[in-house]
Amino acid sequence: MKRTRIITLVAVLAVLAAALLGYDLLRRGSDAASPARGQSDSGAAESANPSAAGSDAGDSKILIVYFSRTEGVYDGPLDVGHTKVVADFIQARTGADEYEIVPATDYPTDYQSTTEIAQAEQNEDARPAIANPLPDVADYDTVFIGAPIWWGEYPMIVRTFMDGVDLNGKTLVPFTTHEGSGLGTTQSQLAAQYPDATVLDGLGVRGGEAESSRPDVDEWLEGLGF
Ligand SMILES: Cc1cc2nc3c(=O)[nH]c(=O)nc-3n(C[C@H](O)[C@H](O)[C@H](O)COP(=O)(O)O)c2cc1C
């Protein structure tokens, strides 16, 4: 009798140990398989800034890519860049991952010089370097791409991003902040660069209204089904 109890106890402990080990292995496995946060296609070091709190909205995996500045801005310096404010509202509703485009060479801190450099970049069709590794976009179905309007379109550094990742086959959603140009040419730029993507209606928010734009952002997202 006593021997039977000991055998039973050992068997129960063995089952418990196996269950715990299995959970640990599963957890590690899912961490390794989770979507890229700052991983580069080339496997370079982790990015300085991508962040994520989860990336699911329903069954869709969503990434928010944005470029935004606090200095050299029309109404700066700012605590948080206008476009980042909007990006964070989208993140709060969708639970998406975020990737920030960080320039390898920062722009000037004054507005006038920034506009001159931006215009020169546009005239030269430049591709300013990005400091942080590009995200692995393979697992995402939907990618929001947000930036300030510079001279009527996305800043050229967003083109650098667009040239570096293939977003064909995905759902793309532009958003901007601006001082009057709305979405500029962002929607048509995305459609031209990725002919096999579906480009949804974007949202342009005036920079000075970014902080109070949450209801508009939510309404827009709801209209798109997010
Ligand atoms: C270089 C540069 C060019 C700009 N060009 C335009 C423009 O063509 N149309 C417009 O409405 N706003 C333009 N703006 C204003 C910005 O789009 C606006 O201030 C934006 O909200 C800044 O966003 P951020 O804080 O996320 O960088 C320009 C600003 C800069 C710095």
3D structure, described in words:
By secondary structure, the protein is of the alpha/beta class. It has one domain: Rossmann fold (3-Layer(aba) Sandwich), CATH 3.40.50. It has six helices and seven strands; from the N terminus they run αββαβαβαβαββα. Helix 2 crosses helix 6. The protein starts with a helix and ends with a helix. Flavin mononucleotide (FMN) binds next to helix 2, helix 3 and strand 5.
Fourth CATH level, the homologous superfamily? Flavodoxin domain
Number of strands: 7
Domain count, please report it.
1
The CATH architecture term is: 3-Layer(aba) Sandwich
What structural category characterises the helix and strand content?
A: alpha/beta
Q: Any low-confidence stretches, pLDDT <50, length ≥5?
A: 12-56
Arithmetic mean of pLDDT: 82
Instruction: Using the alpha-carbon principal axes, give the shape.
Output: globular
User: Radius of gyration from the CA trace?
Assistant: 22 Å
Bound molecules: flavin mononucleotide
CATH overall fold name:
Rossmann fold
What fraction of residues sit in β-strands? 15-25%
Order of helices and strands: HEEHEHEHEHEEH
Class, according to the CATH hierarchy?
Alpha Beta
Protein name: Flavodoxin/nitric oxide synthase
GO molecular function: FMN binding
Region (Disordered): 32-56
Domain Flavodoxin-like: 80-222
